[in-house]
Design brief:
This protein has 2 domains: 181 residues, Gcn5-related N-acetyltransferase (GNAT) (Aminopeptidase, 3-Layer(aba) Sandwich); 133 residues, Aminopeptidase, CATH 3.40.630. It is 28% helix and 32% strand. It has 9 helices and 16 strands. It has a 12-stranded mixed β-sheet with strand order 1-2-3-6-7-14-8-13-12-11-10-9. The chain starts with a strand and ends in an 11-residue tail after the last helix.
């Protein structure tokens, strides 16, 4: 049975999260207390046992120069013994139709396996440069002060930096009040933070990172390019970082993957999506959606899939580099 989640599901959901993602009890409690919205989550239940689940959280995206209502999907999981039966695909079909009824225009997610999500009509929204086993050459002098910073106490200044630099990219999550929630999440994950500031104390760039064995994972690097390079150069161990697609890579070495997909999206309600972009209305005739039949428009000689339409809209509207940091 596929259904929306209920608060009474929380004990099972906590256990599934722990078994699949191996997070600490503290982080799982944080996740369920801060991000669990029952009507935006869905489960597959068999004989009273939840065997597959996913979570949704409202987080607008910058798309085509507008703030588009969006549901960020995360925590997609199926118990190992129930995999290979197509349960998650069917759960997504139920979920997308449920969100359609709620009037949601768009979902986004950070894919572990992009090919899988193509099967539900999702397409790449943003790209990044991924540097692994990386090292940044340290300059003799830099025009800013680099220091370790407490994430929560500096949240307001970090937010100001984020809002100053991230509008240069399309596909960016518009965090607003959610910024503080994201920072508290990093704290729950035992992440640390370094900042690069000018003489006035304004933050020019910041780096959120966590040391995992002999690798430093940097889920968020935001700010002036030279400031971010300076921050990366302070890391003594090899690092992994997700950087904007136009980030200059001079003096950075390692395994570099360009044009990597770092977020995907899917139109849920075509009508709600077009309300943001009426200029796309003439191109929407003949759209076919094999999951949400209510999106199907009167056919012309040319039929276009809902995923191809979003890809075309992304290319037409989002002329800026398309990038978002690790917004999950």
């Amino acid at each position: 049975m596929f259904r929306s989640a209920r608060k009474s599901d929380l004990p099972q959901l906590r256990q599934i999260w722990k078994d699949i993602f191996h997070d600490t009890d503290s982080f799982i409690n944080w996740q369920m207390n801060r991000r669990f919205i029952a009507e935006l989550c869905a489960v597959c239940e068999e004989d009273g046992r939840i065997v597959s689940c996913l979570y949704g959280y409202p987080l607008p995206l910058s798309f085509g120069g507008k703030a588009v209502d969006n549901i960020l999907v995360s925590g997609v999981a199926t118990l190992p013994e129930y995999r290979g039966r197509g349960l998650m695909t069917e759960l997504f079909k139920f979920y997308l139709n449920r969100l359609y009824a709620l009037g949601v225009p768009l979902i986004s997610l950070t894919p572990a396996n992009p090919a899988y999500y193509e099967g539900i009509g999702a397409v790449p929204l943003t790209e990044s440069v991924i540097v692994s086993c990386g090292k940044a050459e340290k300059k003799a002098e830099v025009p800013f002060k680099i220091e370790k910073t407490d994430i929560l106490s500096a949240a307001a200044k970090l937010k100001a930096c984020y809002e100053r630099f991230m509008p240069a990219y399309s596909g960016v999550s518009i965090r607003g009040d959610y910024f503080e929630i994201k920072m508290s999440e990093y704290t729950e994950e035992s992440c640390e933070c370094m900042t690069a500031a000018n003489e006035k104390g304004d933050i020019l760039g910041y780096l959120v990172y966590i040391t995992e064995g002999k690798i430093v994972d940097c889920p968020e690097a935001v700010g002036d390019n030279e400031a971010v390079k300076g921050l990366l150069s302070e890391i003594k161990l090899p690092f992994k970082a997700v950087l904007p697609p136009d980030f200059p890579l001079e003096n950075i070495s390692g395994n570099i993957v360009r044009n990597a997909c770092n977020s995907m999206g899917r139109i849920v309600s075509l009508r709600k999506f077009l309300a943001y972009f009426p200029e796309l209305e003439p191109f929407s005739k003949g759209i076919y959606d094999d999951i949400i039949s209510s999106n199907n428009v009167s056919f012309t000689e040319k039929v276009i899939s809902i995923s191809d339409f979003l890809s075309a809209a992304n290319a037409k509207l989002n002329l800026k580099p398309r990038f978002t940091p690790d917004f999950y």
